[in-house]
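Please, structure for the following, as tokens.
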Amino acid sequence: MKTKIYGHRGSKGQYPENTILAFEKAIGAGVDGMEMDIHMTKDGELVVIHDATLDRTTTGTGYVKDHTLAEIRALSAGAKFAEFKHYDRSWNLELVPTLKEALALFKAHGLEVNIELKTYEDEYPGIEAAMLKVVRESGYEADRIVYSSFHLPTLLRIKQLDESAKIAWLVGQPIPMLPDYIAPLGLEALHLDQKLVLPHVDYWRPIADKLRIWTVNEEGNMKVLMALGVNAIITDYPELATRLV
């Protein structure tokens, strides 16, 4: 089985993460899918940003949930990345995308999509239903999207709202008998930290096709996981990963 390559927040290693620019660069590298993160604004809109706060990746400050979409869209999502090798002043014009905008771009290129809900940081009441509504309205093929979170109740709520939804549990810490959770929870996959998999490759081999591994940036680790036959590698450097494939 060919291992798929997912851009982690786009081409995060070289471009401002979770921006249209970073997504386009990953698409240009030939990725099979894209991973992105969503939060909910004060006025109930869904935006693509990793942190619960604006401070690290934008020119704003404070929590996403305390700002309206219009306020967030007035910020630069690229200016904070001026230390990157390929930085250009045009990056300053990058905005925080909406989920709707990101999906439109990915749909145009036929990508698989991993939407991570950051609900372990803030509760965001109703985010699951709001997200599913945006996805339905986008016309995206349901089987091309997987919803992931570290927060299991979020995933179970998604399943309650849409039985056909594909859900994946994000896991970064060792959990005994983790493969045994897949069937009872209705998981389509496990999204595992590479540190859980690389030291125990043989253990994971029987369910390799149900594993997407993050965040894999070293060539040697990519090769090991590709040889294992994992479903996908999620990487900050899709340019490197797609060359290896």
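The radius of gyration is 17 Å. The mean pLDDT is 98.
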